[in-house]
UniProtKB/TrEMBL annotation:
Keywords: Membrane, Transmembrane, Transmembrane helix. The chain crosses the membrane at residues 26-50, 62-84, 96-119, 352-371. The lineage of its organism: Bacteria, Pseudomonadati, Pseudomonadota, Alphaproteobacteria, Rhodobacterales. It comes from Thalassobius vesicularis. It comes from the Bacteria. This is DUF4407 domain-containing protein.
Amino acid sequence: MDTPNQRLTADETKGLRTAKELEGHLIWLDTFTSAALGILAIASGIYTYLGVSSLLEDNGAMSFFAAVAYSIAVSVGIFVFWSYMMRLLPSMRSAAGLIGLTVSTCVGSLAIVAMSSWLNAAALAGSAAVEQHLDMTVRDYQAALEQAHDIALSGQALGREVQRAREAFEALADQEKSGNLSGTAGEGAVFRVLTQKTEELRNLEGQIQEQQPLIEEAFEVGNAILGRMRGLTVAAGAVEQRSVAFSEESVRLAGVIANLNQYSVAQLVARAAEDLPSSVVLPDLDGRSATVRNAQSSTISSVLNALDQRSKTLKRAADEVLAITPPQETAYNPISAADAVIRYAGSFVPSWAGAIAIDLLPAILVFVLAITQSAIRNGRDGLSIEETLTLSDLKAAINAMRDVEASMGAADTAIQRRGALVSETINEPTNEKSET
Protein backbone atom coordinates (compact mmCIF):
# COMPACT_ATOMS: atom_id res chain seq x y z
CA MET A 1 0.00 0.00 0.00
CA ASP A 2 1.35 3.43 -0.96
CA THR A 3 2.15 5.92 1.76
CA PRO A 4 0.53 9.39 1.65
CA ASN A 5 3.77 11.00 0.46
CA GLN A 6 3.92 8.63 -2.50
CA ARG A 7 0.47 9.77 -3.62
CA LEU A 8 1.52 13.46 -3.90
CA THR A 9 2.08 14.81 -7.39
CA ALA A 10 5.10 16.95 -8.28
CA ASP A 11 3.05 20.16 -8.27
CA GLU A 12 1.53 19.33 -4.90
CA THR A 13 4.94 18.59 -3.46
CA LYS A 14 6.31 21.86 -4.81
CA GLY A 15 3.35 23.83 -3.45
CA LEU A 16 3.68 22.17 -0.05
CA ARG A 17 7.40 22.98 0.13
CA THR A 18 6.70 26.60 -0.86
CA ALA A 19 3.99 26.90 1.80
CA LYS A 20 6.28 25.54 4.50
CA GLU A 21 9.10 27.83 3.41
CA LEU A 22 6.83 30.87 3.53
CA GLU A 23 5.55 29.85 6.95
CA GLY A 24 9.12 29.72 8.19
CA HIS A 25 9.78 33.20 6.86
CA LEU A 26 6.64 34.57 8.50
CA ILE A 27 7.59 33.04 11.85
CA TRP A 28 10.97 34.78 11.68
CA LEU A 29 9.53 38.09 10.49
CA ASP A 30 6.88 38.08 13.18
CA THR A 31 9.62 38.31 15.83
CA PHE A 32 10.31 41.98 15.05
CA THR A 33 7.24 43.17 13.13
CA SER A 34 5.50 44.52 16.23
CA ALA A 35 8.62 46.38 17.31
CA ALA A 36 9.04 47.93 13.86
CA LEU A 37 5.38 48.95 13.80
CA GLY A 38 5.76 50.52 17.23
CA ILE A 39 8.81 52.52 16.09
CA LEU A 40 6.91 53.84 13.07
CA ALA A 41 3.97 54.82 15.28
CA ILE A 42 6.24 56.62 17.74
CA ALA A 43 8.06 58.47 14.93
CA SER A 44 4.74 59.58 13.48
CA GLY A 45 3.64 60.72 16.94
CA ILE A 46 6.78 62.84 17.36
CA TYR A 47 6.26 64.65 14.07
CA THR A 48 2.58 65.01 14.89
CA TYR A 49 3.57 66.70 18.15
CA LEU A 50 5.76 69.16 16.24
CA GLY A 51 2.94 69.89 13.82
CA VAL A 52 0.39 70.41 16.59
CA SER A 53 2.80 72.70 18.45
CA SER A 54 3.03 74.95 15.40
CA LEU A 55 -0.76 75.35 15.42
CA LEU A 56 -1.14 76.22 19.10
CA GLU A 57 -0.65 79.92 19.80
CA ASP A 58 -0.14 79.50 23.53
CA ASN A 59 3.17 78.02 24.66
CA GLY A 60 2.04 77.26 28.21
CA ALA A 61 1.90 73.96 30.06
CA MET A 62 -1.67 73.24 28.96
CA SER A 63 -0.74 73.57 25.29
CA PHE A 64 2.26 71.31 25.84
CA PHE A 65 0.16 68.58 27.47
CA ALA A 66 -2.50 68.96 24.79
CA ALA A 67 0.08 68.43 22.04
CA VAL A 68 1.61 65.46 23.89
CA ALA A 69 -1.82 63.88 24.45
CA TYR A 70 -2.75 64.25 20.79
CA SER A 71 0.54 62.79 19.57
CA ILE A 72 0.25 59.82 21.97
CA ALA A 73 -3.30 59.19 20.80
CA VAL A 74 -2.09 59.21 17.20
CA SER A 75 0.76 56.78 17.96
CA VAL A 76 -1.54 54.38 19.80
CA GLY A 77 -4.20 54.61 17.10
CA ILE A 78 -1.72 53.87 14.32
CA PHE A 79 -0.19 50.92 16.20
CA VAL A 80 -3.54 49.36 17.13
CA PHE A 81 -5.12 49.89 13.71
CA TRP A 82 -2.26 48.33 11.74
CA SER A 83 -1.90 45.51 14.27
CA TYR A 84 -5.55 44.63 13.67
CA MET A 85 -5.14 44.75 9.92
CA MET A 86 -1.95 42.68 9.90
CA ARG A 87 -3.63 39.93 11.88
CA LEU A 88 -7.12 39.90 10.44
CA LEU A 89 -6.98 40.83 6.76
CA PRO A 90 -4.42 38.16 5.66
CA SER A 91 -6.48 35.50 7.47
CA MET A 92 -9.72 36.25 5.63
CA ARG A 93 -10.83 33.46 3.29
CA SER A 94 -14.23 34.72 2.15
CA ALA A 95 -14.60 37.39 -0.50
CA ALA A 96 -17.03 39.37 1.65
CA GLY A 97 -14.64 39.46 4.59
CA LEU A 98 -11.69 40.36 2.39
CA ILE A 99 -13.58 43.21 0.70
CA GLY A 100 -14.92 44.49 4.01
CA LEU A 101 -11.49 44.62 5.65
CA THR A 102 -9.94 46.17 2.54
CA VAL A 103 -12.51 48.96 2.64
CA SER A 104 -11.85 49.35 6.36
CA THR A 105 -8.14 49.63 5.61
CA CYS A 106 -8.75 52.38 3.07
CA VAL A 107 -11.04 54.30 5.41
CA GLY A 108 -8.59 53.95 8.26
CA SER A 109 -5.74 55.13 6.03
CA LEU A 110 -7.70 58.28 5.15
CA ALA A 111 -8.39 58.88 8.83
CA ILE A 112 -4.68 58.55 9.63
CA VAL A 113 -3.79 61.01 6.86
CA ALA A 114 -6.40 63.43 8.20
CA MET A 115 -5.27 63.27 11.82
CA SER A 116 -1.54 62.80 11.40
CA SER A 117 0.04 62.99 7.95
CA TRP A 118 -0.67 66.67 7.25
CA LEU A 119 0.76 67.55 10.66
CA ASN A 120 3.82 65.46 9.86
CA ALA A 121 4.20 67.39 6.62
CA ALA A 122 3.89 70.64 8.58
CA ALA A 123 6.71 69.51 10.86
CA LEU A 124 8.88 68.41 7.92
CA ALA A 125 8.35 71.40 5.61
CA GLY A 126 6.40 73.97 7.63
CA SER A 127 9.14 76.60 7.76
CA ALA A 128 9.94 76.19 4.08
CA ALA A 129 6.24 76.50 3.20
CA VAL A 130 5.92 79.73 5.20
CA GLU A 131 9.03 81.08 3.45
CA GLN A 132 7.43 80.24 0.11
CA HIS A 133 4.32 82.12 1.22
CA LEU A 134 6.52 85.12 1.95
CA ASP A 135 8.19 84.78 -1.44
CA MET A 136 4.84 84.58 -3.24
CA THR A 137 3.67 87.66 -1.36
CA VAL A 138 6.82 89.53 -2.43
CA ARG A 139 6.07 88.61 -6.04
CA ASP A 140 2.52 89.90 -5.73
CA TYR A 141 3.73 93.16 -4.25
CA GLN A 142 6.39 93.51 -6.93
CA ALA A 143 3.82 92.98 -9.69
CA ALA A 144 1.49 95.54 -8.06
CA LEU A 145 4.32 98.07 -7.67
CA GLU A 146 5.46 97.69 -11.28
CA GLN A 147 1.91 97.92 -12.59
CA ALA A 148 1.19 101.06 -10.57
CA HIS A 149 4.46 102.57 -11.82
CA ASP A 150 3.61 101.72 -15.44
CA ILE A 151 0.18 103.34 -15.11
CA ALA A 152 1.74 106.46 -13.58
CA LEU A 153 4.29 106.66 -16.42
CA SER A 154 1.50 106.21 -18.94
CA GLY A 155 -0.21 109.19 -17.35
CA GLN A 156 3.03 111.17 -17.63
CA ALA A 157 3.11 110.35 -21.34
CA LEU A 158 -0.07 112.43 -21.67
CA GLY A 159 2.15 115.44 -21.03
CA ARG A 160 3.42 115.17 -24.58
CA GLU A 161 -0.14 115.39 -25.91
CA VAL A 162 -0.76 118.46 -23.75
CA GLN A 163 2.51 119.98 -24.95
CA ARG A 164 1.54 119.46 -28.58
CA ALA A 165 -1.82 121.19 -28.01
CA ARG A 166 -0.14 124.08 -26.19
CA GLU A 167 2.44 124.54 -28.94
CA ALA A 168 -0.32 124.48 -31.57
CA PHE A 169 -2.24 127.27 -29.85
CA GLU A 170 0.95 129.25 -29.25
CA ALA A 171 1.66 129.08 -32.97
CA LEU A 172 -1.86 130.26 -33.73
CA ALA A 173 -1.44 133.13 -31.27
CA ASP A 174 1.81 134.19 -32.98
CA GLN A 175 0.06 134.08 -36.35
CA GLU A 176 -2.79 136.19 -35.00
CA LYS A 177 -0.35 138.68 -33.52
CA SER A 178 1.35 139.11 -36.90
CA GLY A 179 -2.02 139.35 -38.70
CA ASN A 180 -1.80 136.07 -40.56
CA LEU A 181 -4.86 134.47 -38.93
CA SER A 182 -7.80 136.90 -38.84
CA GLY A 183 -6.17 139.43 -41.13
CA THR A 184 -5.72 142.02 -38.40
CA ALA A 185 -2.36 142.25 -36.67
CA GLY A 186 -2.15 142.88 -32.94
CA GLU A 187 -3.39 141.37 -29.67
CA GLY A 188 -7.10 141.60 -30.21
CA ALA A 189 -10.00 139.31 -29.23
CA VAL A 190 -8.74 136.26 -31.13
CA PHE A 191 -5.25 136.61 -29.67
CA ARG A 192 -6.66 136.78 -26.13
CA VAL A 193 -8.70 133.60 -26.66
CA LEU A 194 -5.64 131.76 -27.94
CA THR A 195 -3.40 132.92 -25.08
CA GLN A 196 -6.11 132.00 -22.58
CA LYS A 197 -6.14 128.36 -23.78
CA THR A 198 -2.36 128.33 -24.07
CA GLU A 199 -1.99 129.32 -20.43
CA GLU A 200 -4.46 126.64 -19.35
CA LEU A 201 -2.52 123.98 -21.23
CA ARG A 202 0.79 125.30 -19.88
CA ASN A 203 -0.52 125.05 -16.31
CA LEU A 204 -1.74 121.49 -16.97
CA GLU A 205 1.63 120.60 -18.45
CA GLY A 206 3.36 122.01 -15.36
CA GLN A 207 1.17 119.90 -13.05
CA ILE A 208 2.05 116.80 -15.03
CA GLN A 209 5.77 117.55 -14.83
CA GLU A 210 5.55 118.09 -11.07
CA GLN A 211 4.38 114.50 -10.63
CA GLN A 212 7.43 112.98 -12.35
CA PRO A 213 9.91 113.26 -9.42
CA LEU A 214 7.24 112.04 -6.99
CA ILE A 215 6.65 108.96 -9.13
CA GLU A 216 10.34 108.14 -9.39
CA GLU A 217 10.89 108.65 -5.67
CA ALA A 218 7.95 106.40 -4.76
CA PHE A 219 9.18 103.71 -7.14
CA GLU A 220 12.66 103.79 -5.62
CA VAL A 221 11.25 103.59 -2.09
CA GLY A 222 9.05 100.67 -3.13
CA ASN A 223 11.98 98.79 -4.61
CA ALA A 224 13.99 99.37 -1.44
CA ILE A 225 11.16 97.91 0.66
CA LEU A 226 10.91 94.96 -1.70
CA GLY A 227 14.63 94.34 -1.22
CA ARG A 228 14.21 94.20 2.54
CA MET A 229 11.23 91.88 2.18
CA ARG A 230 13.24 89.52 -0.03
CA GLY A 231 16.00 89.55 2.57
CA LEU A 232 13.53 88.57 5.29
CA THR A 233 12.31 85.69 3.14
CA VAL A 234 15.71 83.95 3.10
CA ALA A 235 17.22 85.32 6.31
CA ALA A 236 18.37 83.09 9.14
CA GLY A 237 16.32 82.68 12.28
CA ALA A 238 12.82 81.62 13.22
CA VAL A 239 10.34 82.22 10.43
CA GLU A 240 7.73 83.48 12.93
CA GLN A 241 9.91 86.44 13.92
CA ARG A 242 10.73 87.21 10.31
CA SER A 243 7.04 87.16 9.48
CA VAL A 244 6.41 89.98 11.96
CA ALA A 245 9.06 92.21 10.35
CA PHE A 246 7.79 91.16 6.91
CA SER A 247 4.27 92.27 7.85
CA GLU A 248 5.53 95.71 8.88
CA GLU A 249 7.37 96.18 5.59
CA SER A 250 4.31 95.03 3.63
CA VAL A 251 2.22 97.79 5.24
CA ARG A 252 4.77 100.40 4.16
CA LEU A 253 4.86 99.02 0.63
CA ALA A 254 1.07 99.04 0.39
CA GLY A 255 1.16 102.77 1.21
CA VAL A 256 3.77 103.39 -1.50
CA ILE A 257 1.63 101.58 -4.09
CA ALA A 258 -1.42 103.60 -3.04
CA ASN A 259 0.59 106.81 -3.52
CA LEU A 260 1.70 105.71 -6.98
CA ASN A 261 -1.92 105.15 -7.93
CA GLN A 262 -2.73 108.69 -6.82
CA TYR A 263 0.18 110.18 -8.77
CA SER A 264 -1.38 109.17 -12.08
CA VAL A 265 -2.53 112.32 -13.94
CA ALA A 266 -4.86 110.52 -16.33
CA GLN A 267 -7.98 111.59 -14.42
CA LEU A 268 -6.68 115.17 -14.24
CA VAL A 269 -6.06 115.30 -18.00
CA ALA A 270 -9.48 113.78 -18.72
CA ARG A 271 -11.25 116.49 -16.69
CA ALA A 272 -9.11 119.25 -18.25
CA ALA A 273 -9.90 117.94 -21.73
CA GLU A 274 -13.62 118.10 -21.00
CA ASP A 275 -13.30 121.65 -19.69
CA LEU A 276 -11.05 122.92 -22.48
CA PRO A 277 -13.75 123.93 -25.04
CA SER A 278 -16.42 124.80 -22.49
CA SER A 279 -14.37 127.14 -20.33
CA VAL A 280 -13.65 129.75 -23.03
CA VAL A 281 -14.30 133.32 -21.95
CA LEU A 282 -15.19 135.11 -25.18
CA PRO A 283 -13.94 138.71 -25.24
CA ASP A 284 -15.72 141.60 -26.90
CA LEU A 285 -14.91 141.99 -30.56
CA ASP A 286 -12.69 145.05 -30.84
CA GLY A 287 -12.40 145.41 -34.60
CA ARG A 288 -12.54 148.93 -36.01
CA SER A 289 -15.04 147.98 -38.65
CA ALA A 290 -17.80 145.48 -39.19
CA THR A 291 -15.61 143.58 -41.64
CA VAL A 292 -12.86 143.17 -39.06
CA ARG A 293 -15.32 142.13 -36.38
CA ASN A 294 -16.85 139.55 -38.72
CA ALA A 295 -13.36 138.19 -39.41
CA GLN A 296 -12.65 137.99 -35.70
CA SER A 297 -15.92 136.18 -35.04
CA SER A 298 -15.23 133.71 -37.81
CA THR A 299 -11.70 133.09 -36.52
CA ILE A 300 -12.90 132.58 -32.94
CA SER A 301 -15.41 130.00 -34.23
CA SER A 302 -12.56 128.18 -35.96
CA VAL A 303 -10.49 128.34 -32.77
CA LEU A 304 -13.38 126.87 -30.80
CA ASN A 305 -13.65 124.03 -33.30
CA ALA A 306 -9.94 123.41 -32.95
CA LEU A 307 -10.29 123.41 -29.17
CA ASP A 308 -13.07 120.84 -29.44
CA GLN A 309 -10.92 118.57 -31.61
CA ARG A 310 -7.94 118.91 -29.28
CA SER A 311 -10.08 118.20 -26.24
CA LYS A 312 -11.44 115.00 -27.83
CA THR A 313 -7.93 113.88 -28.69
CA LEU A 314 -6.73 114.47 -25.12
CA LYS A 315 -9.82 112.79 -23.71
CA ARG A 316 -9.27 109.65 -25.79
CA ALA A 317 -5.63 109.46 -24.73
CA ALA A 318 -6.58 109.91 -21.06
CA ASP A 319 -9.34 107.30 -21.31
CA GLU A 320 -6.86 104.78 -22.71
CA VAL A 321 -4.72 105.24 -19.62
CA LEU A 322 -7.74 105.05 -17.32
CA ALA A 323 -8.81 101.82 -19.05
CA ILE A 324 -5.63 100.07 -17.94
CA THR A 325 -6.44 97.54 -15.22
CA PRO A 326 -5.25 98.93 -11.91
CA PRO A 327 -2.98 96.77 -9.75
CA GLN A 328 -4.77 94.22 -7.64
CA GLU A 329 -4.87 95.19 -4.01
CA THR A 330 -2.26 93.08 -2.25
CA ALA A 331 -2.10 92.46 1.48
CA TYR A 332 0.11 90.11 3.45
CA ASN A 333 -1.88 87.58 5.47
CA PRO A 334 0.15 85.68 8.09
CA ILE A 335 -0.21 81.94 7.77
CA SER A 336 0.63 78.99 9.99
CA ALA A 337 3.06 76.27 8.97
CA ALA A 338 0.28 73.67 8.64
CA ASP A 339 -1.87 75.92 6.45
CA ALA A 340 1.15 76.87 4.33
CA VAL A 341 1.99 73.21 3.71
CA ILE A 342 -1.56 72.57 2.50
CA ARG A 343 -1.71 75.72 0.33
CA TYR A 344 1.63 75.01 -1.35
CA ALA A 345 1.41 71.23 -1.28
CA GLY A 346 2.49 70.97 -4.91
CA SER A 347 5.86 72.48 -4.07
CA PHE A 348 6.54 70.01 -1.25
CA VAL A 349 5.66 66.67 -2.78
CA PRO A 350 8.69 64.85 -1.25
CA SER A 351 7.78 66.09 2.24
CA TRP A 352 4.16 65.06 1.77
CA ALA A 353 5.27 61.67 0.45
CA GLY A 354 7.48 61.11 3.49
CA ALA A 355 4.79 62.27 5.90
CA ILE A 356 2.21 59.93 4.37
CA ALA A 357 4.63 57.03 3.93
CA ILE A 358 5.58 56.93 7.61
CA ASP A 359 1.87 56.44 8.44
CA LEU A 360 0.80 54.19 5.57
CA LEU A 361 3.90 52.03 5.13
CA PRO A 362 2.28 49.27 7.28
CA ALA A 363 -0.45 49.03 4.62
CA ILE A 364 2.17 47.59 2.28
CA LEU A 365 3.08 45.03 4.93
CA VAL A 366 -0.59 44.14 5.32
CA PHE A 367 -0.98 43.40 1.62
CA VAL A 368 2.34 41.52 1.56
CA LEU A 369 1.10 39.34 4.39
CA ALA A 370 -2.23 38.83 2.63
CA ILE A 371 -0.49 37.71 -0.56
CA THR A 372 1.85 35.41 1.39
CA GLN A 373 -0.98 33.82 3.36
CA SER A 374 -2.89 33.27 0.13
CA ALA A 375 0.15 31.53 -1.37
CA ILE A 376 0.44 29.33 1.73
CA ARG A 377 -3.22 28.35 1.52
CA ASN A 378 -2.90 27.58 -2.17
CA GLY A 379 0.05 25.30 -1.42
CA ARG A 380 -1.90 23.39 1.23
CA ASP A 381 -5.37 23.31 -0.34
CA GLY A 382 -6.54 19.84 -1.34
CA LEU A 383 -4.04 18.02 0.89
CA SER A 384 -4.94 15.99 3.95
CA ILE A 385 -3.29 16.47 7.32
CA GLU A 386 -1.18 13.31 6.86
CA GLU A 387 0.16 14.63 3.55
CA THR A 388 1.22 17.96 5.00
CA LEU A 389 3.17 16.48 7.93
CA THR A 390 6.94 16.90 7.80
CA LEU A 391 9.55 14.81 9.54
CA SER A 392 9.75 17.29 12.40
CA ASP A 393 5.96 17.23 12.67
CA LEU A 394 6.07 13.41 12.87
CA LYS A 395 8.75 13.51 15.54
CA ALA A 396 6.71 15.99 17.54
CA ALA A 397 3.59 13.81 17.12
CA ILE A 398 5.47 10.67 18.22
CA ASN A 399 6.86 12.45 21.26
CA ALA A 400 3.38 13.68 22.09
CA MET A 401 1.98 10.13 21.75
CA ARG A 402 4.70 8.81 24.03
CA ASP A 403 3.87 11.47 26.60
CA VAL A 404 0.20 10.52 26.36
CA GLU A 405 0.97 6.80 26.68
CA ALA A 406 3.22 7.47 29.66
CA SER A 407 0.52 9.53 31.27
CA MET A 408 -2.06 6.84 30.57
CA GLY A 409 0.24 4.13 31.97
CA ALA A 410 0.80 6.10 35.13
CA ALA A 411 -2.92 6.56 35.45
CA ASP A 412 -3.55 2.80 35.03
CA THR A 413 -0.95 1.99 37.66
CA ALA A 414 -2.52 4.45 40.06
CA ILE A 415 -5.96 2.92 39.42
CA GLN A 416 -4.64 -0.58 40.00
CA ARG A 417 -2.99 0.44 43.27
CA ARG A 418 -6.17 2.13 44.43
CA GLY A 419 -8.16 -1.02 43.56
CA ALA A 420 -5.74 -3.20 45.49
CA LEU A 421 -6.01 -0.99 48.52
CA VAL A 422 -9.77 -1.11 48.36
CA SER A 423 -9.70 -4.92 48.11
CA GLU A 424 -7.40 -5.24 51.11
CA THR A 425 -9.67 -2.96 53.10
CA ILE A 426 -12.70 -5.12 52.30
CA ASN A 427 -10.94 -8.42 53.00
CA GLU A 428 -9.50 -7.49 56.42
CA PRO A 429 -12.80 -7.92 58.40
CA THR A 430 -13.46 -11.29 56.79
CA ASN A 431 -10.05 -12.64 57.82
CA GLU A 432 -10.58 -11.55 61.43
CA LYS A 433 -13.88 -13.51 61.63
CA SER A 434 -12.26 -16.63 60.30
CA GLU A 435 -9.56 -16.64 62.96
CA THR A 436 -12.18 -16.31 65.66
